[in-house]
C-alpha cells in the first residue's frame, strides 16, 4: 500500500504540466454527481477472518452483487490541502441489519438515504493533475423511512483535475456503524464535479472606436427623394408618403395597401389576415386536428377524450376505462353490502401466535375474498397488518408487514394479479381499542382489507 501511494504521488508530480493558476489553489464551491456501489458482504467476511484471507481466497464481492446508487456531493476548499465535502445519496436495497438490532433483513428492496459531512486531506494541491487524498467525517442514514442510524465514513480517493475547476472524483470509503441499526459497509464511487461559483476573469478593455465620418448626403436613403423633402430620409420610401415606406400598421410585413386586415398581424397567404380559427378554441385551423370542434392545445385542438363514455374526461377520470360516476372521480361506487362482507372476511383472518403463518380457519373467508376480486377485475385491494403494543416496536412492525404480505401472497397464489394488490404493515401505530386490556389488544391484532378502484 505504501509503495502504491508513493507511486501515485510521483505520477502526480510528473503531470504538473496540467497545473492551474497558482492563485486559485483553494477549491471553489463545486457540485459533483456520482454513481456508487455498496458492499456489505466483504466487510463481514473480513471481520470473520482477515483481509489477507479474503484476498488470498478471492472472496471480494463481485460488482454484480453490490447495490448501486446515486449521490450528490458539495465541495468547498478550506486551505490548499483541506477541502470540506458533504454528500447526500440514495439507493434501493435489502438492508442487512445487524443481529443485535432485532430487525430482520427485508424481503423487498427499500430506499436507503444517507447524508454525511467530511474533511478531505489532500496530499497534493489542486495545481496537480492527479491529487490523492484521505477523508473522514460523520454521517446519518434513514432506511425505509423508519430505521435511523449513524456511521463514521473514512476512506481515500483520487481527484483528476480537468481544468477550469472541473475534476473527476474516484473514492473509496468505509462506513463504520455507530448505532444498532447501522451495518458496516464499503462504498466505491465515481463522479464528475464542476464549480458553481465563477472564478476570477481578466477584464479586457474594448478598443476605442474610430471617430465617425461626417457626411452630408443629398439623398441618404437613395429613394430618389432629396433629404430636404424626405420625411423618412434614412429609410427608402415613395413620393406618395413623402419619402416614407408604405405603412404597415400591424407590423406583419405586409403593407397596408396589400393587407386586408391592416390592424391585425397576419400572413401573406391569407392576404395579411391571421390564420382562421373556425371553432374559436384559440388554436388556428392549420394546427387544429379538429378545426370544427372546440378543443385544447395538448390534444392538438381536439377535446379531452372520454374513453369509457361516462361523461368524465380522461384527465379527471381515475378509472378512464371503466364507466363510473362523477362523485367517485369517474370510478364505479363499491356497494355497501360488498364493503360489509369484506370487513367480515377481514375479522376472520387468523395467524399462528407470534408468526405470519395463516391457520386453516382463515382459508374459507380468504376464498370468499378471492371470488370478490375475480368477479370484478377492476377492483384493487389494500392489505394492512396491525399488532398490539406488546413487544418492541421494531418486532411489531416486522410482524405486521409479514402478515400483510402473507395474505397478499395467498391471493396471488389463487391467480389474483399482483398489480391489483398492495400490502403494508403499521405495527402498533394505529390501535382501534385500548391496549391496556386483553380484549383491546385482541382487537388491535388485526388485518384490514380495503377495496378501491384507483
Automatic annotation (TrEMBL):
Residues making up the signal peptide according to the UniProt record: 1-19
Database matches in SUPFAM superfamilies: OmpA-like, TSP type-3 repeat
InterPro entries associated with the record: Bact_OuterMem_StrucFunc (IPR050330), OMP_bac (IPR006664), OmpA-like (IPR006665), OMPA-like_CS (IPR006690), OmpA-like_sf (IPR036737), Thrombospondin_3-like_rpt (IPR003367), TSP_type-3_rpt (IPR028974)
Keywords: Cell outer membrane, Membrane, Signal
Domain of life the protein comes from: Bacteria
Regions annotated as coiled coil: none
Keyword Transferase: no
GO cellular component: cell outer membrane
Primary localization: membrane
MF terms in GO: calcium ion binding
Region (Disordered): 201-232
Official protein name in the record: Thrombospondin type 3 repeat-containing protein
Species: Hydrotalea sandarakina
Amino acid at each position: 500500500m505504501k509503495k502504491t501511494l508513493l507511486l501515485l504521488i510521483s505520477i502526480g508530480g510528473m503531470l504538473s504540466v496540467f497545473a492551474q493558476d497558482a492563485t486559485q489553489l483553494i477549491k471553489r464551491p463545486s457540485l459533483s454527481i456520482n454513481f456508487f456501489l455498496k458492499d456489505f458482504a466483504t466487510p463481514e467476511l473480513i471481520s470473520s477472518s482477515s483481509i489477507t484471507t479474503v484476498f488470498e481466497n478471492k472472496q471480494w464481492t463481485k460488482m454484480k452483487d453490490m447495490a448501486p446508487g446515486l449521490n450528490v456531493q458539495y465541495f468547498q476548499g478550506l486551505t490548499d490541502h483541506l477541502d470540506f465535502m458533504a454528500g447526500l445519496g440514495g439507493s434501493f436495497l435489502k438492508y442487512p441489519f445487524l443481529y443485535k438490532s432485532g430487525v430482520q433483513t427485508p424481503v423487498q428492496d427499500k430506499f436507503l438515504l444517507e447524508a454525511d459531512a467530511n474533511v478531505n486531506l489532500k496530499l497534493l494541491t489542486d495545481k496537480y493533475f492527479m491529487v490523492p487524498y484521505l477523508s473522514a467525517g460523520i454521517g446519518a442514514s434513514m432506511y425505509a423511512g423508519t430505521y435511523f442510524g449513524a456511521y463514521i465514513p473514512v476512506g481515500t480517493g483520487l481527484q483528476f483535475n480537468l481544468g477550469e475547476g472541473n475534476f473527476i472524483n474516484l473514492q473509496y470509503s468505509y462506513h463504520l456503524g455507530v448505532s444498532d441499526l447501522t451495518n458496516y459497509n464499503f462504498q466505491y464511487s465515481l463522479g464528475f464535479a464542476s464549480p458553481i461559483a465563477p472564478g476570477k476573469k481578466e477584464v479586457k478593455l474594448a478598443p476605442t472606436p474610430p471617430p465617425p465620418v461626417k457626411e452630408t448626403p443629398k439623398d441618404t436613403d437613395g429613394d430618389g427623394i432629396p433629404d430636404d423633402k424626405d420625411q423618412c430620409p434614412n429609410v427608402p420610401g415613395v413620393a406618395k408618403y413623402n419619402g416614407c415606406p408604405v405603412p404597415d400598421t400591424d407590423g406583419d410585413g405586409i403593407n397596408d395597401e396589400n393587407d386586408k386586415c391592416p390592424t391585425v398581424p397576419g400572413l401573406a397567404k391569407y392576404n395579411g389576415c391571421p390564420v382562421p380559427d373556425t371553432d374559436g378554441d384559440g388554436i388556428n385551423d392549420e394546427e387544429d386536428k379538429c378545426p370544427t370542434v372546440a378543443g385544447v392545445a395538448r390534444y392538438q385542438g381536439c377535446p379531452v377524450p372520454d374513453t369509457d363514455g361516462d361523461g368524465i374526461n380522461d384527465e379527471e377520470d381515475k378509472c378512464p376505462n371503466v364507466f363510473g360516476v362523477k362523485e367517485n372521480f369517474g370510478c364505479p361506487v363499491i356497494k355497501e353490502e360488498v364493503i360489509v362482507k369484506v370487513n367480515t372476511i377481514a375479522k376472520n383472518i387468523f395467524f399462528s401466535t407470534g408468526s405470519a403463518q395463516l391457520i386453516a380457519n382463515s382459508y374459507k373467508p380468504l376464498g370468499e375474498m378471492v371470488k370478490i376480486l375475480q368477479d370484478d377485475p377492476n377492483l384493487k385491494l389494500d392489505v394492512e397488518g396491525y399488532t398490539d403494543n406488546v413487544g418492541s416496536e421494531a418486532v411489531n412492525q416486522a410482524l405486521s408487514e409479514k402478515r400483510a404480505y402473507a395474505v397478499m401472497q395467498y391471493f396471488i397464489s389463487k391467480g389474483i394479479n399482483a398489480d391489483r394488490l398492495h400490502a403494508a404493515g403499521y405495527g402498533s401505530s394505529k390501535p382501534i381499542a385500548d391496549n391496556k386490556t386483553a380484549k383491546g389488544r385482541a382487537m388491535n391484532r388485526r388485518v384490514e382489507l380495503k377495496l378501491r378502484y384507483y
